[in-house]
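Subject: GNAT family N-acetyltransferase

B.,
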Amino acid sequence: MGIQIRAATPDLLAAAVRKFMGAEPGRTYLDSPGTLAFVAADPEVLGWCWGYHLPRPDGTSMLYLHQFAVDENHRRRGIGKGLLRAFMTAGTRAGATKMFLTTGADNHPARSLYDALGGGLAEQGPTVNYWFVLDR
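Prediction pasted inline below.
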């Protein structure tokens, strides 16, 4: 059958969450507006990516890629490129004109892939990421 890259179904997403996050999947992600998730499988899960299509106040929209991973034993086979292309194509069809993501400065394999697909460093220069833990 070969490696297939497709939009995540609840079962595929659950398998990817277990493999790449080491957690039990939530039930509402795929039902939430603007979510995008793709899984590569053969039939086991080999990679995934997920994020959001975000509308902007100026009437445009963009993509945010939150997580992207390919099983270490299956890298350099085009899986990552296929996942990112699927994610970007879905976003383009939804009206997005830009995509952003954050990666580690030393994550050279990922950065090479992003460069190869036409990505570039943010024009505003170096950025700093902040995380906030919100009280419930």
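The chain has one domain: 4-116.

T.
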